[in-house]
């Protein structure tokens, strides 16, 4: 089954404790992206990746890191989480080639609800 | 600057009523794409439709229809004979030809269908 898998679904942590949210897709998509969703703000892009070893900042990259060492995986790293990073996070991937997302719809993971106390 | 406005924060209707979700966008590009996504209570985001700026034909898919009007910069979504399963948050999004790899999202409209 074609899917984007995020883990964990729920995560509660404390300020300053490094954490990683994993994302994996099995559709051979070149494009992957991380979003955060906050009430009244819709989805805001954190980072995206056009292909292996190619990443770029989105609208709200501060406090986050990503890596794309393999095509299928795109982990989101919070080196020193803070309470303002409490949010619902989504990983997404898109079809290969072209100027995404113009060509294809995005496939989303089920989300990770992060709480930082 | 590019922007997507979904002015309706929440809409509540009774089952079988028709309901329209509004989406107004701003862009300076002549080539762009518009999307609708659905987020049911379970939380996942599901693609519904994509429309490019050169195709103003309205789209109908079962009980769902979309009205794209460039003159008013709107891409509205209508559900006919709504059902409880239509309850979800609906997002409208914009991508521009000159800014690849990024979507501009509206804040979403929460639709509640009461039985």
Short summary:
Chain A is an all-beta fold and 117 residues long. In chain A, 0% of the residues lie in helices and 49% in strands. In chain A, strand 4 and strand 5 form a beta hairpin.
Radius of gyration of chain B: 14 Å
Uncertain spans of chain B:
none
Major sheet of chain A: 7 strands, mixed
Taken in chain order, the helices and strands of chain B follow as EEEEEEEEEEEE
Quote the distance from N terminus to C terminus of chain A: 36 Å
The global form of chain B is globular
Q: What structural category characterises the helix and strand content of chain B? A: mainly beta
How would you describe the overall organization of this protein?
With about 120 residues, chain A is mainly beta. In chain A, about 0% of the residues lie in helices and about 50% in strands. Chain A is built from no helices and eleven strands. In chain A, strands 2, 4, 5, 6, 9, 10 and 11 form a seven-stranded mixed beta sheet that branches. A four-stranded antiparallel beta sheet of chain A has the order 1-3-8-7, with no helix packed on it. The model of chain A has no long low-confidence stretch (mean pLDDT about 90). With about 120 residues, chain B is mainly beta. Chain B is about 0% helix and about 55% strand. Chain B has strands at about 5, 10-15, 20, 25, 30-40, 45-50, 60, 65-70, 75-80, 90-95, 100-105, 110-115. In chain B, strands 2, 5, 6, 10, 11 and 12 form a six-stranded mixed beta sheet that branches. The mean pLDDT of chain B is about 95. The interface of A and B includes residues 45 and 90 of A.
